[in-house]
Amino acid sequence: GENVEQHPSTLSVQEGDSAVIKCTYSDSASNYFPWYKQELGKGPQLIIDIRSNVGEKKDQRIAVTLNKTAKHFSLHITETQPEDSAVYFCAALISGGSYIPTFGRGTSLIVHP
Amino acid sequence: GAVVSQHPSWVICKSGTSVKIECRSLDFQATTMFWYRQFPKKSLMLMATSNEGSKATYEQGVEKDKFLINHASLTLSTLTVTSAHPEDSSFYICSASRTSSYNEQFFGPGTRLTVL
């Protein structure tokens, strides 16, 4: 089955800095990669996703890159703000398959004002 | 669009009682809903996949008689924790996939269960 590794487990940055979270996956058949943000006491919220037919996707301060050959994808947050502080999860799944994503272990991002 | 609600948001119950948690897709139809359990500072653990009109598929190690799942309509799935014990205390989260775009999962806000 699929195995997703996520690093780092904790990331502390100063407001305005950039933050990068990296994930690797093992199943080359995976072709859909969502990222979720989970604030304390709440459910995860989809913030951005990428499919295997593109290498990069951007939405304002958030971007995701995908390297299919190396089987890794990354979340990039620029100009971080304190409200970006949360736990971020990456996931990988096979589009058209069982719909069940494999999640990374999560990264706790702390943005210091 | 794509809003998923859960009720209740938190519940405290006595050991031995049963607790029902509802998951609703408010503005879309969800053929498939998922139930997760999350321990503090841990990732999401999939418990079961709930398909409308059919029996739920449970992940290995999850007791189906303990965690009863019913997905009676395209907008509602319920998880009942039967004869709850303190070790069942956890954060339970559901998610739903739209029938038209089943790759995307939309998560509910979660239900915090505390069993005394």
Order of helices and strands of chain B: EEEEEEEEEEE
Question: How many helices of chain A does DSSP assign?
Answer: 0
- Write down how many β-strands of chain A occur, each being a DSSP E stretch of 2 or more residues: 11
What's the overall average pLDDT of chain B, rounded? 90
Shape of chain A: globular
What is the string of helix and strand elements of chain A? EEEEEEEEEEE
Overall spatial form of chain B: globular
Rg estimate of chain B, integer Å: 13 Å
**Strand-residue fraction of chain A?**
over 45%
Please tell me the overall pLDDT of chain A.
Answer: 93
| Quaternary organisation of the protein chains | heterodimer
**Strand residue percentage of chain B:** over 45%
- End-to-end Cα distance of chain A, whole Å, is 41 Å
DSSP, total strands of chain B: 11
Q: From the helix content, strand content and strand pairing of chain B, which structural class follows?
A: mainly beta
Helix content of chain B: under 10%
Largest sheet of chain A: 6 strands, mixed
Biggest protein-protein interface?
A-B, 23 and 23 residues
In words, what does this structure look like?
By secondary structure, chain A is mostly beta strands. Chain A has strands spanning 4-7, 10-14, 19-25, 32-38, 45-51, 56-59, 62-67, 72-77, 86-92, 102-103, 107-112. The model of chain A has no long low-confidence stretch (mean pLDDT 93). Helices cover 0% and strands 59% of the residues of chain B. Chain B has strands at residues 4-7, 10-13, 19-25, 30-38, 44-51, 57-58, 67-73, 76-81, 90-98, 101-107, 111-115. Chain B is mainly beta and 116 residues long. The mean pLDDT of chain B is 90. The interface between A and B is medium-sized, with 23 and 23 residues.
